[in-house]
Design goal:
- The protein has about 400 residues and is of the alpha/beta class.
- It folds into 3 domains: about 1-105 and about 295-325, NAD(P)-binding Rossmann-like Domain (Rossmann fold); about 110-290, NAD(P)-binding Rossmann-like Domain (Rossmann fold); about 325-408, Alpha-Beta Plaits (2-Layer Sandwich), CATH 3.30.70.
- The chain is about 30% helix and about 20% strand.
- It has 13 helices and 16 strands.
- Bound molecules: 1,4-dihydronicotinamide adenine dinucleotide (NAI).
- The site of 1,4-dihydronicotinamide adenine dinucleotide (NAI) has 31 residues, from helix 5 and helix 7.
Amino acid sequence: MPRTSFPRHKIRITLLENIHPAAREALVAAGYTVDLIPKALEGDDLAKVLAESHIVGMRSRTKLRAAQLEIAPKLLAIGCFSVGTDQVELSAAAQRGVPVFNAPHASTRSVAELTMGCVIGLARRLGDKSAKLHQGQWDKSLSGAHEVRGHTIGLIGYGHIGQQVGLLAEAFGMRVLFHDIQKKLPLGLSKPLPTIEQVLDESDFVSLHVPETAQTRGMLGAPQIARMKQGSYLLNLSRGSVVVIDALRDALQKGHLGGAALDVFPQEPTPTQAEWRSELAGLPNVLLTPHVGGNTEEAQRNIGLEVAAAITSYIDRGDTEGAVNFPTINLPPRENTHRILHVHRNVPGVLASVTSIMSELGANIEAQQLGTTRDIGYLVMDIDRQLSDAVHERIAALPVSVKTRVLY
Ligand code: NAI
């Protein structure tokens, strides 16, 4: 167990919204006190939790905006047990010295597996066959049914998910092409192509695995879809805005595409909306799933473990690896040193101010890392002697200081 100078059980962590039990287990094993609240909170209930907690963890329904962060005097960090972090006002959290952690890649494998499920589902027209049999029709026709072996899949976006899909597709005997705006090392026998157009020209299946950006919004519109091979298939399990739905519907209705699989949509329903209908409903060989690519027990468990590990290493060492609103600092602990963490406003001269307090003390700085963002600077410093409360207070009282912690 790391040598923090504070009693670990005094760190109070509140986990909301039924976060996977693996997170609680990991945090309890680390020695912290963990409270569980199964639902999302707002208003006075949330205020009460924020007044008492050092760490708050939630999924996507509890919202932490500047107004809530103002009433969270003890808050050290926030854990978003989710892929996204829209539920937190990130810049307001940073300005209060509170890093926000999430788990952007814990569901990678789940999405990749569903993508492969859809590839086979499209090739065998499983959606239609299943729907017909549910209605009592025994349709054994082989028309439009294919093996995937020997066919080509083109991946647009070759990041965490794209790479996994590529490896799985290759294991099925498929040829893998990809296009990414960054230079990526091809895994297995996959082949990088310099343009999207080349991927569209050559692929029997085109699968999108890009983030939502200005560049990817509407990236697959009418001209791109027209360029895809006759009878080929389009899969989107990334973000709804990447595909122009009207153009896809036209191409499916005209029989230019052989089918499509969509897990994400430009306008998805709100959690309380009872009914929702896609413009693609009823079209042949179209697999529609309600944004469940990452919804597996395994992914939830991975999210729990990943965010719990990030929180632990922030509390114990000050590491901010994986924080979405903080500079990344990861300073390996050293023997016989004492560590101070200092979050400050990002203005010139802060390092000099802290260093001069250290040199007045006669302390030697053994290691340090400083990182900045537009909002804040974050300094982690290891020195050769214990800091007294008086020195701690002196640093904390610098006009630029936001949050100061002595770890050990
Ligand atoms: P990642 O960040 O690891 O990879 C994305 C890749 O896309 C990067 O390599 C990037 O360079 C590339 N890229 C960005 N802009 C591009 C462009 N204009 N053209 C070509 N390549 C471009 O992200 P990851 O984890 O692989 O996720 C991919 C997508 O999957 C994201 O949109 C994410 O939101 C979505 N996702 C969907 C889930 C679901 O439930 N359906 C669950 C998890 C993620």
